[in-house]
Amino acid sequence: MTHEHAEADTPDPTATPPAQLLEVTAGYPGVTALEGVTLGLHPGRITALLGANGSGKSTLFSTLLGLVTPRSGTVEIFGRSPHRARRDNLVSFVPQHEAIDMTFPVSVEQVVTMGRYPHMGLTRRPRAADRKAVEDALAATGLDTYRRRGIGELSGGQRKRAFTARALAQDAPLMLLDEPFAGVDRTSERLLTDVLHRLRETGTSILVSTHHLDGVKDLADDVVLLHRRVLASGSPDEVLTEHNMARAFGAVIAEAG
Amino acid sequence: MDYLIQPLEYAFMQNALAVAVITATVCGMLSAWLVLMGWSLMGEAVAHSVLPGVVLAFILGIPFGVGALVFGLLAVALIGGLGQTTALKRDTAIGVVFTSLFALGLVLISTVTTSTHLQHILFGNVLGTSRADLYQVAALAALTATVLLIKRRDFTLVAFDRTYALSIGLPVGALTWTLLVLLALTTVTALQTLGVILVVAALVIPGATGFLLARSFGPMLGLSAGVGAVAAVVGVYTSYYWDISTGGAIVLAASSQFLLAYLFSPRRGLLARGVRRLKRRRA
Ligand SMILES: Nc1ncnc2c1ncn2[C@@H]1O[C@H](COP(=O)(O)OP(=O)(O)O)[C@@H](O)[C@H]1O
Ligand SMILES: [Mg+2]
Questions:
Q1: How far is CA A26 from CA A18, A37, A48, A248, B204, in A?
Q2: Is A55 in the pocket of ligand 1 (CB under 6 A)?
Q3: B274, part of any domain
Q4: For position B158, which CATH number holds?
Q5: Minimal CB count within 10 Å: which of A102, A175, B24, B245?
Q6: Which of B61, B55, B69 is nearest to B118 (CA)?
Q7: Structural domain includes residue B204
Q8: pLDDT averaged per 10 residues in sequence order, chain A, 257 residues
């Protein structure tokens, strides 16, 4: 996958942090989902955002995308406001999607093509470069043979791959993935991990949330442990200590015995 | 062939056929998105809410389309506002708003106009279409169809995956409002043909039929428009020969196509599903 952010105002991915939160507090009416969160991503690396259900992972993504406005604190993507960053196609997003309409009449190939909209003109008619990017993304996620399938006719893992392919086709320097491994079989999990590793080689920065502990060491260069606040951040070995896990997943681990 | 040509010797039949086909085609296009957005009730709400606007326009002597548009948009704004300021579910907000506005329309009507007018607004008066009406409808329809076609891929993405649409910086709010304004405009153009009560049929049945038949959105859009156009032609001619309500005949022609799709659609039809079930049992 090549990066063709040809516009003159493309940021130098090594100079500014791909994503930075400073003392961010955010939430919903009556709920504080994030409190005083400070965190910066390192360019060209995979950061795992680890936290139990309800720990604020999805809210953190929404804040990075400017879909939730922080009550206080600042958010920057490559040194710009989330709003600008979205408009400049600096960030691609794979939503968690618990409630997508499975009966929607749209094929896998059409879903992936949606990822090219930021590169297209007024009517979003695909050009050769767009078709090539869609081909590459379908191939990378092993979905070539499923391209004509309806999005509702895929398994859970295949569907996650399709939405990842859409983000790949977008070809942005920062990719955010919200729980891409949830409800996914082994094959799809391995395949997605490989996709992200290959994407890292192109210099793309990646933030991926998960509540599965297994595989984090394999997947990520850095780990951020979230539970409304940042409990710990650093290399997997530093963060994935028993003590930290108990603080983040206390109840869950106690239950699992 | 004579059967098709003979009625067109009358100018009023030419106008009626043209205005019905144009209206039903554009309604059909729009219905494809309404069905996917889960907005079928929204069509109903806007259609009924325009009534007081039409009556007020009549009182003030301004084009009735203007009054209808204002009240159609007012309904949309009130429904959105109620949803945001209370914990009421959307269908409840819709139910409160449109019945209230419709009732206001009925009360206004009873104070000013004759029952003939009421009949025309409620049930349409396609055979009374003048050339001027026709041009007005054609212009509005052309505008609506153009916007829908140019922005069709954006509308479809918003309907399919709002969060992702936001994440790539699409103006989701503006696109949503555009669709609602087009809904109000289209409702206004369809009043002449179908009237307040039956407009919602043209805004839902073609889309529902297309949905049963198509695997992807492009074909669904084409089919929805086609169902609308065919219903208009069949409806206008049957109403001429059998001397039955034109609006009613158009809607029934659309319903018949829906029924056919429901029974015989290769993918989601009753017959196909039955055959698949039999095969599975044999295997
Ligand atoms: N749209 C919303 N409205 C109100 N509260 C929400 C909403 N989304 C999430 N929350 C609440 O915010 C907190 C964090 O949720 P979320 O960010 O979804 O966590 P995670 O993704 O880690 O499971 C939870 O307490 C959740 O109930
Ligand atoms: Mg979540």
A1: 20, 9, 20, 19, 40
A2: yes
A3: no
A4: 1.10.3470.10
A5: A102
A6: B55
A7: no
A8: 48 76 94 95 95 93 96 95 95 87 93 96 93 96 94 91 96 96 87 95 95 86 94 90 84 48
**Alpha helix (H) residue ranges in chain B:** 2-5, 11-37, 40-60, 64-85, 90-112, 115-123, 131-150, 152-160, 162-167, 172-213, 217-242, 246-264, 270-282
> What type of residue sits at position B87?
A
Q: Answer yes or no: pTM beyond 0.95.
A: no
Give residue B109's domain range.
2-199
Place of tokens 């009237």: B195
Q: Which two tokens stand for residue A115?
A: 């990822």
Indicate yes or no: CB of A67 within 8 angstroms of CB of B153: no
Nearest in space to B40 (alpha carbons), one of B196, B203, B264 = B203
Q: Which residue has the tokens 């590459």?
A: A136
Residue spans of beta strands (DSSP E) within A13-141: 19-28, 31-40, 46-50, 72-77, 91-94
Strands (E) located in A29-128 = 31-40, 46-50, 72-77, 91-94
Q: Across residues B234-241, what is the average pLDDT?
A: 94
As given in the structure block, the two tokens for residue B91 are 């269908």
The runs of H, that is alpha helices, within A153-235 are 156-170, 186-201, 216-219
Residue B70 lies in a domain: yes
- Superfamily grouping for domain A14-90+174-257: P-loop containing nucleotide triphosphate hydrolases (3.40.50.300)
Among A93, A111, A150, beta carbon nearest to B167 = A93
- In a domain? residue B105: yes
Nearest-CA distance from B245 to chain A in Å? 35
Give the Cβ contact number of residue B265 at 10 Å: 18
Report how far ligand 2's centroid is from the alpha carbon of B41 (Å).
31
Q: Is A59 in the pocket of ligand 1 (CB under 6 A)?
A: yes
- Ligand 1 atom, smallest distance to A61 CA: 17
Please indicate whether residue A31, judged by its CB atom, sits closer than 6 Å to ligand 1: yes
Q: How many domains does chain B have?
A: 1
* C-alpha distance from A95 to closest chain B C-alpha (Å): 7
Which residue of chain B comes nearest to A63, CA vs CA?
B167
The C-alpha atoms of residue B162 and residue B154 are separated, in whole angstroms, by 10
- Going from N- to C-terminal start, the domains of chain A cover 14-90+174-257, 98-171
Q: Which residue has the tokens 């979230």?
A: A226
CA distance to partner chain A, nearest, from residue B32 (Å): 11
Q: Which residues surround ligand 2, an ion (CB under 5 A)?
A: A 57-58, 96
